[in-house]
Amino acid sequence: MRVNFTVNGRQQEADDVWEGESLLYVLRERMGLPGSKNACEQGECGSCTVRLDGVPVCSCLVAAGQVEGREVVTVEGLADYAKHREDAHPGTGCASGACGTTLDAAKRWEARPTDGRTGEAAELAPVQQAFIDAGAVQCGFCTPGLLVAADELLEQNASPSDADIREALSGNLCRCTGYEKILDAVRLAAARQEETV
Amino acid sequence: MGSQTRATTAPSGSPTSIKQGSKTRGGIGESTLRPDGTLKVTGEFAYSSDMWHEDMLWGYTLRSTTAHAEIRSIDTSEALATSGVYAVLTYDDLPTGMKNYGLEIQDTPVLAHGRVRHHGEPVAIVAADHPETARRAAAKIRIDYAELPVITDEASATAPGALLIHENRDDHHIGHVPHPNIVHRQPIVRGDAAAAAERADVIVSGDYVFGMQDQAFLGPESGLAVPAEDGGVDLYVATQWLHSDLRQIAPVLGLPEDKIRMTLSGVGGAFGGREDLSMQIHACLLALRTGKPVKIVYNRFESFFGHVHRHPAKLHYEHGATRDGKLTHMKCRIVLDGGAYASASPAVVGNAASLSAGPYVIEDVDIEAVALYTNNPPCGAMRGFGAVQACFAYEAQMDKLAAELDMDPVEFRRINAMEQGTLLPTGQSCDSPAPVAELLRLVKSRPLPPEQQWLAAGEQADVRALPGGLSNTTHGEGVVRGVGYAVGIKNVGFSEGFDDYSTARVRMEVINGEAVATVHTAMAEVGQGGVTVHAQIARTELGVSQVTIRPADTQVGSAGSTSASRQTYVTGGAVKHTCENVREKVLELGRVKFGTYHPAWATAELLLEGGKVVTDGGEVLADIVDVLENESVDLELEWRHRPTEPFDLRTGQGNGHVQYSFAAHRAVVEVDTELGLVKVIELAVAQDVGKALNPLSVLGQIQGGTTQGMGVAVMEEIIVDPKTAKVRNPSFTDYLIPTILDTPTIPVDVLELADEHAPYGLRGIGEAPTLSSTPAVLAAIRNATGLELNRTPVRPEHLTGT
Predict the structure, then answer these.
(1) CB-CB: which of A39, A117, A183 is closest to B35?
(2) What does residue B699 show for φ and ψ, rounded to 5 degrees?
(3) If you placed Cys at B311, which of A67, B24, B120, B379 could pair as Cys (CB 3.0 to 4.6 Å)?
(4) Which distant-in-sequence residues (6+ apart) come within 8 Å of B679 by Cβ?
(5) pLDDT of A144-173, one tens digit each?
(6) Which residues in chain A are closer than 8 Å to B511, comparing Cβ atoms?
């Protein structure tokens, strides 16, 4: 079957999709967007979390056909999504789909030069930078899913308590960090968000 | 650092820090950020499961549905006839006479031949154009099994007439084991435990059971094999030791090692679970057979069968002590279940035995550790490696003794704490700082978290803070609090005479007018942050700010394994050593070019700092750029830590370990005694790291290790049916690892007492925090409930007696 949907603000079309294929498989293997991770593929670990019409979901549990005509944001689009949320749609995100990434911008994004030492030169969503700065990234396999979930939390709740953060991220397993640095990162992103308001 | 974390300076009288190199920005001791951080937060970092190649096929493994059976026949014809299938391979298709592999003992079949020995053993492999096609084709392979009785424990393994798991053993342990179903046995006898027991005022004994833990790294076993025009293969894979894989792959494929080019692709955690091969040979076989690139990615179910686990253990301990709290003796027997294949079992036995007395002064010991061959899932390396199981038992014993003597458990431990110079059961002297008492003091001196925090918000209980959380099972009625302590000792690096070396290649040149260092090693970056500290070491030693870390591959010499807390020590040591030699070459060039201009070139001790050649007095002699100009310096060197020696097979005596690492925990738990639910409130940890090369990464390792230890205390266990030896819970639905809601605040105290034998004085850190975390949580639950609790993980039925 053919599936038409929007990924990170761009219209996409996937052909020859099997009925049983998950959104995760289509993103990773057909769209060339491997950022969403395949750790358990049964909705238990949150590594494949994406936003579907703004709502965080495990993309491994979403059948590809279910996303027909809908909007998906993956970790690859998080920086752009956050930028538009702040610039054009304060507080509401980009769910209208009216602010897609141009092809030129997408190409620039793919070729983004990074400072080999700190990554400071890259254009990142605040929550992405906070994860780096707080040491919340180790092996990093849980990171994309956590970032999508944490970004959505901060969109809904600009100054979450620790209990709020724990509740919001309880569907995302991390095996490396012991979660302390992840808490630090979300607190840091929230604090920086407050500073800029 | 988080607000909960404090760094502590060394207590007075401790060794001073080791002399360090330059003060170039981004050097050792700074919390520089990960060089791969940006790629990892943008989703661009290429993990092994993200590899993609045009015209690529998908591999799939058919695994045995039974734990022990003869294979009468395998019929692959229907699978092979499936549209989209390119190859179906079994044992008969292996290209050479070498059909097994293994880390030390080559007893693991690439594909089962004649017999399967554990549930989930690989029997056939399929390559197809879509992963679902491969799965469906594999389901059409018909295997005729003749079931055999399963061997699941020591009694069934050594029973008269028991089937031998490996009937024709010829490994070098067979000569000294009491039964062929025992992989390895290590006794340690020192002093006279029986005579010492006569001096004891109290003697306590206990039997302890440690469940089977899984590494549960998030990135599944995966990789891509690409056939090459020269008849070889390029393999991109997540592993812990490229060269060890290569050594095992090449003979099976019948290719010389230089025809198999391995590159590390992104590793999503390891924790010991990637020391053994998983899909490496299978992907290469399928690629060479089909002539097409083949990618294999395990799903989570398969991952539980695709790697070895932590050895479950049964431990019997006896300790004695005098009325004033001095340990008199210790006897113990540790039985580790190694499962169907040897993997790292022999080394795990050596560790369990040699570290079985813990960080305590006990002169008279009688120790025995064995690992069994059974039909249970194979067990091997996991964070803590044999020391974890022992720590769980000896720390429970310390609490029992303290209770028997009516002493404070921390005070009892302090009285017996080892220190620098203490002899271990192996007779080896601990010749670097061993701040056991100080680590315990640090965790004990922290203020306790406030009681009944669920009431903090007001009259309504905040159920999120209660055991059971949002399940809304209690409002605090049956909740009691407990506090427990534990401390542990772990060896660092490979022991027992292993040639534990690493290789680093370092190049220094001028690029775009700036001096740049390039570091190339085969070290597997599995998330621990080795790539970060290698750049820091190069900056420190070479005085440059720009350092490029080349991807790890087999084009450079072996780095050894990313395990045993050894990589910063050994590969870090190799990078330091090579940088020092590169620096000498640079200074040599400088002397030739500029030596006549200033006498300091010949007379002073020279350093590279901030892109310049400077004297130890701080005088600048030249820019490195001017020294190098168009020349480059390029060296590849090996580096070894001081040698170790094997343990005597009869007495266990020998200088078997190179370094020790120590951590202590205090756990605060709340237990709902009605429902049998546990919530860990806080898990404070103190650890000596020798020298924190990257403080932020150090904290991440300590907190992560602590959480894995907590996991096995309260939830993590692979459950194997004792009647069938089948795994009951191979999924993240049924094998639980701690979520952010299960994991408490983890405040950390870091000590930096330099080990004068190690590079920069550092101490391997990754494993020690996993040891004492488990017994501390158990001690706290015992303290809260008054129950004996000799088994981990603790389950609700253990707490409610149901």
Answers:
(1) A117
(2) -60, -40
(3) B379
(4) B465, B466, B467, B468, B469, B669, B670, B671, B742, B744
(5) 999 999 999 999 999 999 999 999 999 999
(6) none
